[in-house]
Design a protein that fits this description.
With 162 residues, this protein is mostly helical. It has two domains: 67 residues, Serine Threonine Protein Phosphatase 5, Tetratricopeptide repeat (Alpha Horseshoe), CATH 1.25.40; 53 residues, no CATH class. The protein is built from eight helices and no strands. It is globular. It starts with 8 loop residues before the first helix and ends in an 8-residue tail after the last helix. This is Tetratricopeptide TPR_2 repeat protein. It comes from Methylobacterium nodulans (strain LMG 21967 / CNCM I-2342 / ORS 2060).
Length: 162
Amino acid sequence: MMSATAMPPDRLRRAAFAAGALVLGLAAGASAMDTAPSTDLPDLSAARAKIYAEEYEAAAAELGALTATVRHADLYNLRAFALRKLKRYDEAARWYKEALFYDPTHRPALAYQGELFLAIGDLAHARNNLKLLRLLCHPNGCEELRRLEAALVAAGVDPPPS
């Protein structure tokens, strides 16, 4: 696979446009997908409390049991977060992907997935998530954008220009 830096500029522009169009198209069509609305999401406060207490193994197990019957981006994002904190990166990647399938504009999933990309050394994808967050959080920014920018800086990576 050709890296973005080795890709000819016109092809890179087309690829970036296609990726942006895909995100916007998925976001526009998200209501047509077979997704569980937020009202169908069970109370996740016990799992969140485990995450805040850094009991990631217990949180991942509890959230994993829910994934058998509940389909929701918030659930998948929390599960991925717990797995990422356990350094189970392949599993975390799968659940971030699921979260973004159900809600391509899920800002927490984009930010945390960006942190996962940093953890595994995939700087290009971390920067891409930052660019998507800049689009989603325009014009005033958002917590998720600031979090991923800070993570990039902490990792010694210059965020791409705005």
